[in-house]
Structure prediction request, 1471 residues.
Amino acid sequence: MSKKDLGLLILILVVGAVVAIINPRFLLPINLANTSNLIGLFGILSIGQAFVIITGGIELSVGSVVALLGTLFIDFIAVREMEWPLAFVLIIALGATIGLMHGWLITRLKLQPFVVTLCGLLIYRGVARFYTADGTAGFAFGQNFPELEFLTAGRSWGVPNSFIALIVIAVVMWVVLHRSVFGRYLYAIGKNEEAAKYSGIRTGRIVMAAYVICGVLTALSAIYFAMYTRSISPASHGQFYELYAIAAAVLGGFSLRGGEGSLIGVLLGTVLLQELQNLVNLLGIPSSLNFAVMGGVILIGVLVDQQWGVFRARRRMLEATRKGVAGAAAE
Amino acid sequence: MSKKDLGLLILILVVGAVVAIINPRFLLPINLANTSNLIGLFGILSIGQAFVIITGGIELSVGSVVALLGTLFIDFIAVREMEWPLAFVLIIALGATIGLMHGWLITRLKLQPFVVTLCGLLIYRGVARFYTADGTAGFAFGQNFPELEFLTAGRSWGVPNSFIALIVIAVVMWVVLHRSVFGRYLYAIGKNEEAAKYSGIRTGRIVMAAYVICGVLTALSAIYFAMYTRSISPASHGQFYELYAIAAAVLGGFSLRGGEGSLIGVLLGTVLLQELQNLVNLLGIPSSLNFAVMGGVILIGVLVDQQWGVFRARRRMLEATRKGVAGAAAE
Amino acid sequence: MNYSDPSIVASTDAPFLSLDGVRKTYPGVVALDGFSMDVRPGEVIGLVGENGAGKSTLMKILGGVTRPDTGTITVDGVTHDGLTVEASIGSGIAFVHQELNLFENLDVAANIFFGREPLRAGPLKLVDRARLRAQAAPLLKRVGANFSADTPVSALSLAQQQMVEIAKALSIEARLVILDEPTSSLPIAETDKLLGVIKALKADGISVIFISHRLHEVERVADRVVVLRDGMLAGTLPKSAINHDQMVKLMIGRMLKEREKAAESARPPGSVALSVKAIRTAAYPDRPVDLDVRHGEILGLAGLVGSGRTELARVLFGINRSFGGSFQLDGKDLVLGSAADAVANGIFLVPEDRKLTGILLDLSIAQNISLPNLPAHSRRSLVSASAEAATAEKQKTDLGIRAPSVQTRTGTLSGGNQQKVVLAKWLAMKPKVMILDEPTRGIDIGAKAEIYGLMRALADAGVAVLMISSDMEEVIGVSDRIAVMHEGQISGILDKDRFSQENVLLLAVGKQPK
Amino acid sequence: RADDKPTLAFVVNGASDFWKAAEAGVKKAQGELPNYNLELKYPEQSSVAIQQRLMDDLVTAGVKAIMVSAVDPKTSTDGLNKIASETALFTTDSDAPQTKRVAYIGSSNVDAGKQAAEIAKKAMPDGGKCLGFVGLLGADNAKERIQGMKDGLAGTKIELVDVRGDDIDQARAKKNVEDALVASPDVTCMVGFYSYNTPRIYEALRDAGKLGQITVVGFDDDPITLGGVKEGTVAATVVQQPFEWAYQGMKLMAAYLKGDKSGIPADGLIIIPTKIIGKDDVDAYAASLKAMSGN
Ligand SMILES: Nc1ncnc2c1ncn2[C@@H]1O[C@H](COP(=O)(O)OP(=O)(O)OP(=O)(O)O)[C@@H](O)[C@H]1O
Ligand SMILES: Nc1ncnc2c1ncn2[C@@H]1O[C@H](COP(=O)(O)OP(=O)(O)OP(=O)(O)O)[C@@H](O)[C@H]1O
Ligand SMILES: [Mg+2]
Ligand SMILES: [Mg+2]
Prediction:
């Protein structure tokens, strides 16, 4: 774990301790379970985003994809009465397709990631709204899918299964990002795509794969979100989720210029964001300030991180200088 | 006018012609006036954004600033009964301050523009919502400010004054961007900030100035928007306006990597976006598809632009080769 | 095929690589024009030519980075219309690019084996990190690196990065190694090591194409010299005929007396222009630097890789902060908060990394030249394009910048011509102190002589010139005095009568000359 | 928290001035229920997930009873049931009859729509063509109001031809009206289904000089809407009574927690009917609003 990650972890623990002192109910198992459920949902999303950010790209359509795929998933199983495993596979495939499409537009047709995914943001939500004729996709009363519900919204030994899913995914993705050749290429491309190309790497394919991973993870979390809310108004479902995901990555030490960041960082970023949301509600802070608190903490977080770096560099210099002067005097 | 701008203009005219054929009421003076009013409002916003994008930055807090400053403006004149010119000056000064703060964080503390303005997006709207306690800021019935209303929502010779304001601002900003020393510095910084620094340019100040310009123009348009809707729910007012502004700039040929784009481009981009919104209503397309249409057109626009560039480059290559071969044969 | 050198035909070895009638055009320029050559196993070819002659273009074609318009490339008997990067690497061609291509966020070992990482068993393609480092270490030793395999590349100086590039090329089981100006920022000791490496490769039967503007290096290692002029083959020289004057003659079509051009100072040096007192830099915060540069002199600053010369130049130019110490310009105290302050005081820097800091590749020649002095090219804050063009035209003729027009994008110019543009932008203003960091890096011999002439003319006009250089001949041939840096400190200053390679080298490694 | 008074929460479905009256109602109830903490909570966004999360957190914080205006009551059955299993749950504004909520207190959006039809019929005895404007076309309250109005207009010569949505962007809301005036010159009446739609209609008509020529049917009691009613340029407006929902609701919950279930009818529905406010009632209504908000 890097120093950056450690700092974030400490921040999370300190904030948690303060909240627990003010309102001890913060530590109730039920509250921890609720919060870790949401950490699971947003964490999966954020890991996907992280893979794209590493390459120096960005995926702004995440929220709209959550809305579109969630709508379709509920529609498939509730209205069209598809078997849920089939629907599940279909949705994941759709997520992969969306990612592939974005990757293709970005790597083959050389469009900017911001532009491609901004258009995605606008288009997918529009399609979802059109699909439901601006209505709501939801389950009928009493419609139940025991296994699916257990897997998505259930708990094992008191721990939400969504959180367990996140942990599994995080472990796998940690290996992929930090230990595999593919992960190494991602970092390299994020720093210097030209050079990677000169080294004979098929950068296009690697970047495309990053978008596909993001698409798949987004689709997975879309299913989780759908099973969490059990009803989706495409006009508002998942709005701003891309910001949550990006914020988690940035808090976790990712640079939007690419080539920097760790998987643990993005996880901790997600945890901090969800802790903040929980805190606002638990401490009775007006919810209008919810986003403001989030924004403030992110800003302070990156500021401290940045200034800390500057401070350390300066201290090192000063020390060296002092040593030098002392040495010169001693001579 | 560059070829890119010309292409966009032709697109605007063609779309206009098609709409006019399907529904001739498109060309009614009243419709043109209504639409050009909104072009004025969004245009001012987009020009501000363009200045930031030129430097390779981005300003995501635009929508939230429109909400916060609009709320304050209405509160100042409607509730606190301040003289409107005073309120006007105050709001513009606030806009400048916000821009300065962003610029300072970005250039002096070396934070990433995306991060700083993302936090701004979260914070300013929160503050606005807190300020009104999640209520609405609006005028009482019959509360009137004749001069202010004439300047912001009135018309001269049938042309909305907001549109006239845009034209004046655009002319001034065109000179600033394309003819002035400051404008050249902006492009240079956008292309390669390091090299600009090594040429003795005070890049920090120039970038800061770009954010201040963006802040001032955003504040101005916040006042226009406030006087247009005459009532503001901070929770939703101005949401996604940053995306409109960025989209207008991107459509107008700006690169988010910085150093590329023309003022005429961003104006035409705004015109096209508003034309699309108008078209959705006039042709009775479901309003849910509004954003999807916008997204689709932006995507097609940048795709055509990009592929056209590739095509031209390839043709140039081929010609050069052909000429060369012919020359060699003649020898 | 038309070989101008009969010895090739006589050879019994089949060529490993041959190029036939290769032509490459860019809009407005013919970079290569019907060029043919071949490379036999175990042969070291020196490739020389003026800036913009097409050397890098040729190598990019071999590396698979660009495709020729016409012509064929035959590798190992298989004929291609063009190579891809994969095909090039696959057929055993290793490549050190003229512009560095390393990943700052990875360590040295990862960079060396990038794209060819040793893997653990299993389908996951996990990197075997221990093996990676173990394999990197001997390569680093071979190129004489003084840093370890797990150093992050972001912590290396330019020259050290160049060593990593070379180690990378060695790591490929290559049959042909292409080195595009690998020594351009290497000082003499490291250069010697590299030349040794080349000889070792040759002994293993590996072919080498060695591109350099330092002709004496070419003389030392090449078996055959291929000279390019204006994209065409100007001629080849067999081993026996390789000498400095012959190469120059083929390159520029006439004889040139390079060293004489860098004329003696016309007048004795004047008063102290820039005085540096106990300045400390970020690279060596514990080592104060004292240095005086006088009006009318060229002060050469020599030193080994990473001795801190570039860092000092950055501090003098206001880009980086100094830790303690003071500057005086013409006896007056000077505070440098930014490069803008330095420029306002007439202190200019020609940086060593021109692609990143020297010029804006996307701007035209004229726009680059006017950039530091835009207010003088404007009326009421509005830029005057005609004033810009006038200044640029003058500089283009004065410096002999080869380009279709002053409106040409500088990104399309060859390295040497880009360097001239960097010089031009400062010459168009009035320098008091001119700092040049590796001013002739990647510059051809003709242009080099011109730049030496320019430097001398500046000095004669009373400008204080500080020239940082790793090229020993250049330092000795051009300077009026030589200051030598060792680990962040000035280890000694040599006057003209004590100039010798040996003295400079001794100071550079921290010993005192006799 | 320091005091151990039980907390009752009123959770709305999004930030809107509409709920200001409910805040006043909560305040009034607080005055009469000193032994309780009463809170009114806005979710930071109008979305199911966020509202659900807010309620989960309230339950964690120990809230004893929640009255909620669910963002999407029809399909949030499970989520609401989860809350109902942990605390006393009441619904308001729009009901979720299939859940285990204790009771619903509010009005009927369908009836409100029918009342809007009444206004239109009275204002346009010769028939006409109506255009509607709404924030979220897909939201339940919008759908029910539109349906109610259509039902009420069935068999008359008045027709609701189209409803345009604006995603709660007021600039778009106003432009929609402007565009409608251009696109459908023959329209004779406009309906503002959300509280801010009517004022935007009013202003767009005023800018176009068409005030008084087009019948405006309003919902809710934005000051501009009431001003228009008084002026005669808005035919009438259908008002709900969120003040009463909140006031009565809070008292009902307090009583319920004490074990007094007498206030809850067998079907669990406490309907506080919507009212039509026309020119004659507007002054009295405005005065009562003022009295309720206590300033
Ligand atoms: N991408 C490009 N677009 C346009 N012109 C180019 C491009 N790359 C190279 N050229 C032109 O092709 C010619 C050959 O350039 P090249 O880089 O091969 O020269 P070189 O011999 O390597 O010179 P140097 O010694 O300065 O590195 C030059 O005139 C250069 O301006
Ligand atoms: N800001 C810094 N902080 C710490 N170390 C630095 C910094 N800048 C440079 N260095 C290190 O200090 C040493 C001096 O580097 P510098 O580039 O100044 O040397 P140089 O003499 O110009 O050598 P070269 O021939 O490599 O350009 C290098 O090892 C470099 O990695
Ligand atoms: Mg070259
Ligand atoms: Mg150096």
Remarks:
- Residues 176 and 200 of chain D are 9 Å apart (CA to CA).
- Residues 242-257 of chain D form the longest helix (16 residues).
- Chains D and C do not touch (no CB pair under 8 Å).
